[in-house]
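Late entry, written up from scratch paper. The run itself happened at the end of the previous shift, but nothing got recorded in the book at the time, so transcribing now.
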Amino acid sequence: MIINTNVSSLTAREASTNTNLKIQNSLEKLSSGLKINKASDDASGLAIADKLRTQATSIAQGVDNGNSAIALLQIADKSMAEQSNILDIVRAKLIQANTDTTSGDGRISITKDINKLLSQLDNIAKQTNYNGSYLLSSVNATGSITGSAGILTFQIGEKSTDTMATASIYSTTAGL
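Output as recorded:
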């Protein structure tokens, strides 16, 4: 019994299989845009690439957190600027009330105006929040002002120590 084999055919088939694998690898790299797609391409290179990719994602999230912090601080800044305007008006009214040319009834009206302005100042502090975090005061469950807003911390880097924090802000008339 004789078994005939076509050696040329087997060699051609092996070459074709190897070519198809190389084409498949090349297409995988082209479609993903990555030079290293799996550990068999370059195990240490894949580990380094994954670490860099993770680091880039962390840094991008840190930038987003920083932008959110900027937005939060801009809201607090605008609210405090409005409170500053209110305090300027209160000061002007106090100076107006402190002159002898203002009558007693005028002083009573000025006092009512000042009380309304101070109520507006507290209302601004009570309502200024960013995503549920009160920025200028603490507000309890009943809606009344209880004290200063807490310290807010923002993670702006990939490490847990890469943070930025605000000071506790107290911007109400409580305690006056």
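The chain has three helices and six strands.
(Scratch paper discarded after transcription.)
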